[in-house]
Write a structure and sequence with these properties.
Helices cover 15% and strands 34% of the residues. It has 2 helices and 13 strands; from the N terminus they run H-E-E-E-E-E-E-E-E-E-E-E-E-H-E. It has helices at 13-31, 156-161; strands at residues 43-45, 50-52, 55-59, 65-69, 74-79, 82-87, 98-100, 105-107, 114-115, 121-123, 132-138, 141-150, 164-165. A 5-stranded mixed sheet has the order 1-4-5-6-13, with helices on one face. It has a 4-stranded antiparallel sheet with strand order 2-3-12-11. A 4-stranded antiparallel sheet has the order 7-8-9-10.
Length: 170
């Protein structure tokens, strides 16, 4: 079984590809935003620069924005002087989340649950914040432990700690 061990809700490769296509569609919609939306947080696709068992290593994003590693189903966000790593799936029914660049937030395309860039729930059918992976800093990298996924309603302390604070001058 994959690193998800049933958490991600993917039953097979076809389902994963469908979810990935939805996520990429959301990215492309965000990338086509008009010039008036230039102040919105950007989004891009990334790949882990190193994979070591259940740990994935990424460069710390240089500026605020969201980056998606669709291959590993990880969203890395730099926002308000911190870096977070999220599961790509909505906590409500495991649908791939989309980034709405014009609104600088995440949204589930299935039931329209909305989330802040730090994963905090705004509105919709979901009953909790986005699920966060455990993260730590190693120099200019953030290491994401994909076997440690925290739900805000069941593991509030771990969820709150699952962030890498950055110096405001960084």
């Amino acid at each position: 079984m994959s690193h998800c061990d049933g958490i991600c809700g993917h039953s097979d490769r076809r389902d994963f590809l469908r979810r990935t296509t939805l996520a990429i569609g959301g990215i492309m919609a965000g990338l086509s935003a008009s010039p008036r939306d230039a102040a919105a947080l950007p989004i891009s696709l990334i790949r882990a620069i190193r994979a070591d068992g259940e740990e994935l290593t990424y460069l710390i994003p240089a500026a605020d924005g969201a980056t998606i590693d669709d291959q590993n189903e990880v969203i890395v966000v730099r926002f308000n002087h911190a870096v977070y790593a999220f599961n790509l799936s909505c906590p409500h029914q495991n649908t791939a989340l989309r980034w709405l660049q014009t609104d600088s937030r995440f949204q589930c395309p299935k039931h329209k649950s909305k989330y802040q860039p730090d994963g905090s729930f705004i509105s919709g059918r979901a009953t909790r914040n986005m699920d966060r992976f455990a993260v730590r800093r190693e120099g200019e990298h953030v290491v994401v432990n994909v076997s440690a996924l925290f739900q805000s309603d069941k593991q509030a302390a771990q969820w709150n700690e699952a962030r890498v604070p950055l110096d405001p001058a960084a």
